[in-house]
Specification:
Two copies of one chain form a homodimer. Chain A is mainly α. Chain A is built from six helices and two strands. The first copy, chain A, has one domain: Winged helix-like DNA-binding domain superfamily/Winged helix DNA-binding domain (Arc Repressor Mutant, subunit A). The termini of chain A are close together. The structure holds a DNA duplex.
DNA sequence: TAAAATTGGTTTCAAATGTAACCACTGCAG
DNA sequence: CTGCAGTGGTTACATTTGAAACCAATTTTA
């Protein structure tokens, strides 16, 4: 017990868990709703999965990255990146070119086709985001930004230092 | 185009998507980090998956629900509920009793064992939540609550009224 | 009161995902 | 140089997940 509870555990009136107020639960529901909606928008229009779209989003801004760089940037799994990359390659959305200075490494870039799709998706993505944000006041947006940052820090700490207790 | 943009689309300086600032992305990363950490805590201690734990959380507060009721309460998938229920049943954490007034329906409840586990997990769950919340000031908690509510409303609207555009 | 349509719940099948093993290459220690 | 630890990336396999088909019981409706 990390909190200093002055009451004996057993006799304290048991306050049940209100799932609908439980932050991890709410985050999960919210995130799933949002992701699913957007995934559907990408998917039906461009046959892109979310990981694939993320890869494109990064490559659109930072050319000449390797898969490993992408892993670092996105915090996504190695394998997920590999699969996304090879599917994007198959669709001719990105190019892989061998790095002469390290023949294990592949330098990735959007192809012309890839960039076209990218240019079309960015506004779509921003539209979704704007739509979400439009329900918030400027102050709230600011607050949300900083709150997410803090929560992320805490959750990150779990992963690094191990779980609570 | 729903916003009134006074500039010609093509000539506006293209502002790329900053994935690390893109709300849907950040929500997803945050939610996954949190869920995974907690899932691990439940899983290693009680062999509970997240859906299973959610079912218990609801049943702990509202006895005598059916699977369909759970679907409604949690917004989880029918199949996920079915699987969680049958695994919980197998572990003797919940009981299924046939509803005489409708023989398709099964009335679910925590068993004694189930309730014991429930009573032990609730504090654990709350500890995680407290730990997250401890990084926020009281005002921020309040803000977060209302912000989530608003975002949820917007995302909900997508599901109901169909996607943007 | 006999179809037809609905509802509660499970099963089946395919696709998505994660873990671990794996190859190919690099770089460094001896 | 050779050996071998570490890195970039893919493959294989087991597990999870979701969609749709499905069965059984119930309600509707004609």
């Amino acid at each position: 017990m990390t909190t200093d509870n002055h009451f004996a555990q057993e006799t304290v009136p048991r306050d049940d868990l209100l799932l609908e107020k439980f932050l991890p639960y709410r985050l999960s529901v919210l995130s799933n709703r949002v992701s699913n909606a957007i995934a559907q928008a990408y998917g039906t229009r461009f046959e892109l999965t979310i990981p694939a779209w993320r890869v494109m989003a990064i490559l659109g801004r930072f050319p000449d990255l390797s898969a490993a760089d992408l892993v670092e940037q996105t915090a996504m799994d190695k394998v997920a990146i590999s699969r996304a990359v090879s599917s994007l390659f198959k669709n001719d959305y990105i190019s892989r070119s061998e790095d002469p200075s390290d023949r294990r490494r592949q330098v990735l870039n959007l192809t012309e086709l890839g960039r076209e799709v990218y240019e079309r998706i960015v506004p779509l993505a921003q539209q979704y985001e704007n739509d979400l944000m439009s329900s918030l006041s400027p102050e709230e947006r600011q607050q949300l930004d900083s709150i997410i940052e803090k929560l992320m820090g805490r959750a990150q700490a779990w992963a690094e230092r191990g779980l609570i207790d």
